[in-house]
Design a protein that fits this description.
Layout lengths: L48 H14 L2 H12 L7 H10 L4 E5 L28 E5 L2 H16 L4 H11 L6 E5 L33 E6 L5 H9 L10 E6 L1
Parallel strand pairs: 4-5
Antiparallel strand pairs: 1-2, 3-4
Length: 249
């Protein structure tokens, strides 16, 4: 029978004290290995090609480097994640890939802006569905996830919200948020912070007060998908009790 496996018993390992067995220029020199697998093989299997191949390549067979790299690139790292990896990140930060996008150009008045159109631009509503499901691409969804992550930890200030707007719409033009202010001076007592005293202001006339309002202003047109991101995704923060509106100039 022809020997097909390594010599048995094995020669001295690197770093071992194989006195009397060391061949100058042939025997290996190096650190002592943590475990010698050949010490577990009995002599009758030493020349088995299948067993020796399994032993010699076992680390390559069990190596998970490729899988760990794929997990890091496609799931863990939000900058390179794809598909289901971004869906996982979306659930973590609290934003959905699928948005309800308005379909059709329907006639409406100023109260329905920015989703309404004036004469010669929109038709009267026909009863068709007003919205349709739209799944964002990976790149668009990644931007939305990063913006929502920033919104989750923002202090809610105007500079912080403006930074989120710039990250959502880079190189598109000016977009910013402004807070409402009370228009007009009205008579009131000490409990009302902005009230005026006698002979200084008139009684409240019933005009709308814009104190608790904020406005997102865009100096460039928004696509239906972008408008859905602004109005539905929840990525732009808004304080409780504050009315937010969108204005497209």
């Amino acid at each position: 029978m022809t020997d097909t496996g390594p010599a048995y018993p094995r020669g001295p390992l690197p770093g071992s004290n194989g006195l009397g067995q060391f061949a100058i220029g042939i025997s290996p020199i190096g650190s002592l290995p943590t475990f010698g697998v050949w010490q577990t093989v009995i002599s009758q299997y030493a020349n088995s090609p299948i067993l020796t191949r399994l032993i010699e390549n076992i680390f390559a067979y069990l190596d998970q480097t490729v899988n760990f790299d794929a997990f890091f690139d496609f799931i863990w790292n939000v900058d390179t994640a794809q598909g289901v990896g971004l869906d996982i990140w979306g659930r973590i930060v609290g934003v959905n890939r699928v948005l309800q996008v308005e379909v059709g150009n329907w006639f409406g008045y100023n109260e329905a802006l920015p989703g309404s159109f004036t004469f010669s631009q929109g038709s009267f509503y026909s009863g068709d569905p007003l919205t349709d499901n739209f799944a964002l691409s990976d790149q668009s969804y990644r931007q939305l996830i990063l913006a929502k992550a920033a919104a989750n930890i923002t202090n809610g200030s105007i500079p912080a919200i403006n930074q989120i707007l710039l990250s959502l719409f880079p190189h598109r033009g000016n977009c910013y948020v402004t807070e409402g202010s009370q228009l007009g001076a009205w008579f009131g007592f000490q409990e009302a912070t902005n009230a005026q005293g006698f002979n200084q202001a008139s009684f409240y006339s019933g005009a709308p007060l814009s104190t608790m309002t904020m406005t997102y202003t865009f100096e460039f047109p928004l696509t239906p998908v972008e408008l859905a991101i602004v109005q539905q995704s929840g990525v732009l923060p808004k304080s409780t009790g504050v009315f937010a509106s969108v204005v497209i100039i």
